[in-house]
Design goal:
By secondary structure, the chain is an alpha/beta fold. The protein has a single domain, classed as Rossmann fold, CATH 3.40.50.720. 44% of the residues lie in helices and 14% in strands. The chain has helices spanning 18-29, 43-52, 67-81, 105-115, 117-133, 152-172, 203-219, 228-239; strands at residues 9-13, 33-37, 56-60, 86-89, 136-141, 177-184, 250-253. Strands 3-2-1-4-5-6-7 form a seven-stranded parallel β-sheet, with helices on both faces. Helix 2 (43-52) links the parallel strand 2 and strand 3 (56-60). The longest helix is centred in the middle third of the chain and has 21 residues, at 152-172. It binds nicotinamide-adenine-dinucleotide (NAD). Nicotinamide-adenine-dinucleotide is lined by residues 14, 16-20, 38-40, 63-65, 90-93, 114-115, 141, 143, 184, 186-187, 189, 192, 194, 196.
């Protein structure tokens, strides 16, 4: 096992399950001190698993759809360990799957709050602490669904994440900070402990969701979903010094689907 993150302070948002959890666990195994920001109680299980494996981790429950939650969360890393070296903005995910004409305005707002604002606010909170350090890395988790069916508001949010990545990277590159992103394709994961949408799905909604699955597989050259490992690996590569000359780009991780 390499130790690319020895002594580094890393914040991972939405790390109670899925891609974020694996990123947190693998970074801790490579020496990072990891702070998990997640409002689900499942975050405690991840901290316990990391400590069990002799890693260092803490967790805080905050609502990352608010500025105060993001600011409090990033400050926690500084309070714990005096700095923040790496931020992985992983919170997001489409809440509804349906043709655009069926979205209610309040649902459009909710999608942007879930998949754009946590990244926008956490970038702002982190940059304020990284700039005086003269160093830092932000990895945003976007999506290849910036071109996809039955999730236009989510696509808009992730398009915003790509824009943040390019524009913020340019602003801060000469001050020692890199801002990069991955755009995952469809990813197989165990059933979610924390559902994206806690309301029961109707038959029609299942059909709309099936369209997403079919389109995702069709758009991938490899005609399959990826694994959690296939998503965590590129995120950690971009977060590491192995990617020290890479900034401002969103790397598609979708088996050939460029989004
Ligand atoms: N899973 C996929 O197939 C896939 C595909 C493309 C992109 N992505 C992107 O990858 C990222 C991770 O996806 P996933 O499926 O692994 O995540 P997930 O939906 O399984 O988990 C998200 C986590 O974020 C937490 N969270 C949600 N809203 C929060 C809030 N307001 N405040 C604090 N915590 C909050 C949840 O508690 C949960 O632990 C997302 O940004 C998603 O858009 C995922």
């Amino acid at each position: 096992m390499t130790r690319r993150f020895k002594g580094k302070v890393m914040v991972v948002t939405g790390a109670a399950q899925g891609i974020g959890r694996l990123v947190a666990e693998q970074a801790a195994a490579e020496g990072a001190r990891v702070l998990i920001l997640d409002r689900s109680a499942a975050r405690k299980e991840v901290v316990a698993a990391i400590r069990e494996a002799s890693g260092e981790a803490e967790a805080l429950s905050v609502n990352l759809e608010t500025w105060s939650g993001c600011d409090k969360g990033i400050q926690k890393a500084v309070d714990l360990w005096g700095r923040i070296d790496i931020l992985v903005n992983n919170v997001g995910g489409t809440i509804w799957a349906k043709p655009f004409e069926h979205y209610e305005p309040k649902q459009i707002d909710a999608e942007l709050r879930r998949s754009l604002f946590p990244t926008l606010y956490c970038c702002r909170a982190a940059i304020e602490r990284m700039l005086p350090q003269g160093a830092g890395v932000i990895v945003n988790v976007s999506s290849i669904a910036t071109r996809g069916l039955n999730r236009v508001p989510y696509a808009a949010a992730k398009g915003g994440v790509n824009a943040i990545t390019a524009s913020l990277a340019w602003e801060v590159a000469e001050r020692g900070i890199r801002v990069v992103a991955t755009a995952p394709g469809g990813t197989e994961a165990p059933p979610r402990v924390v559902p994206r949408n806690p309301n029961a799905e109707t038959e029609q909604r299942e059909d709309w969701y099936r369209t997403i699955v079919d389109q995702t597989i069709q758009s991938s050259f490899m005609k399959r979903y990826g694994t959690l490992d296939e998503q965590a690996g590129p995120i950690l590569f971009l977060a590491s010094d192995d990617a020290s000359y890479i900034t401002g780009v969103t790397v598609p991780v979708g088996g050939g689907d460029l989004g």
